[in-house]
Every structure is written in structure tokens, then in C-alpha cells.
Amino acid sequence: MMKVTKHERFADVYWVEFDDGARRPATANLAPGTQVYGEKLVKIHDVEYRVWDPYRSKLAAAILRDIKHVPIASGEKVLYLGAASGTTASHVSDMVGANGSIYCVEISSRPFRDLLIVCRKRPNMIPILADAMRLEGYRLLIEQVDVIYQDIAQPEQTEILLTNAKTFLREDGYAMLALKARSIDVTRDPREVFREGMGRLERELEIVDLKILEPYERDHAMLVMRKES
User: In the prediction, which pLDDT does 7 show?
Assistant: First the structure.
């Protein structure tokens, strides 16, 4: 019989256990009855849960890879850099709830149109069409945030995160970075690229955890960092 249990460490993440023994992460749907990317909806005890696909979301992949800290919780303010069409951002929307907010920055107009559709049913998601490398395009729209989540496939990934963290992340706030080795240098070993990226980041942020995301994402790592006061 299918059942839902709370995640062992993360208050706003759940496990859906299927009849065949498979287990997948899930979030409680802030917009009941609606799907974002065709995900399975499961209703138990009058609560609807969205099954979280690790092949479509690097945050779900990190949870399945047993990342030790996911600093996103109810009521928090999140700056999401590289929100694309809103797949992972919608699960973050579930996690922060109606009292939280997500500033969703996306540069490409095509996925942004899809993001707008998601945001219409989720008032805690604020869509912003802008370049995450050019803070002047959205600086006045965003207050200090508790968490920055970044998923941008550009060579300057680490620099983009550090620049935004200096401006928007509160002291003792957290950042999560989906680091894409092949977007930085396709000729080098991904683990070498990860080590170099960590070296840049730890000059300004405390690295809390790192998980390689295989088999869900090739040549990707998820880093969790804290901005020290």
C-alpha cells in the first residue's frame, strides 16, 4: 500500500513509498490539483503530494544522494537564479509555503513564458526576466534573502553566485549551487573542475556539503554553503 512519511531531516520534504518498494521525494502541493511538469500527484489524508523526479530536478537528485543539509524551509525568502520553466522552483514554492517567497530569475524568454504560467497559480513565486550576471536588472526588486539557489549552465557559475551572495544573501544565510563541470570546461576531468570551483567559493563562503549527482545528472555536483557573519 502506498504511504507518505516525513523526510528524516528536512521538515518540508516527504517520502512517497510505492507498492513496489520504490521511494521518491515529494512536496505538499501548494496548488492542489495542478501539475507543473507531468509529475505524479498522490493524495493521502486530504493532503496532495507532488512526487519529485530526480531526473528532472537536481535538488531532488541531491536529496536522493543523501545530501546532509537543504536550507529551504517554510516562510523563507529564496532567490532562485536560473529558474527556467519552474520545475524545481515549483517544489521550492511548496517548501517555503504561502508565507515564503521565491524570486525566480530567468534570462531566456521561451522558458520564462512557461514560468509565468506556473507563477500564476503560485503567488509566492515572483518571475523576473533578467540576466543573473547583471544585477542592475533586478537589484531594486529583491530584498535580502535567506537562501540563494542557483542552476545556471555558464562558465562563470561560481562568480555569478558569489556576486549575488554579496548583494542579496543575509549574514548566516545559505546558498545552493548546482555546479556543471562541462559548462566550465569540457576538456577537463569533472572532479578537477569541482575542486577548483570549491577553491574559489570557500574564499568567501563556508562549504557545508557537496554531493555528486550521478546517476541522475552526469558531471554535476550540488554544493551547500553558508555566508559567515
Answer: 96
**pLDDT score of 223 more than 60:** yes
Distance CA 15, CA 150 (A): 24
Cα(40)–Cα(139) distance, rounded to whole angstroms? 36
Residue in the block written with cell 531526473: 55
Which helix (H) or strand (E) covers residue 109, if one does?
Answer: helix 109-120
CATH number assigned to the domain covering 3-52 = 3.30.200.20
What is the per-residue DSSP string for 186-202?
TTS-HHHHHHHHHHHHT
- pLDDT confidence of 114, banded at 50, 70, 90? very high
The cell numbers describing 119, all together, are 507563477
Whether 77 contacts 92, CB under 8 Å: no
Domain boundaries, the chain: 3-52, 63-226
- Tens-digit pLDDT profile for residues 174-188: 999 998 866 555 556
C-alpha–C-alpha distance, residues 137 and 150, integer Å:
17
Distance of CA 13 to the CA centre of its chain: 13
Distance CA 187, CA 151 (A): 21
Q: CATH number of the domain at 63-226, out of 3.40.50.12240, 3.90.1150.10, 3.40.50.150, 3.40.50.970?
A: 3.40.50.150
**pTM (2 decimals)?**
0.93
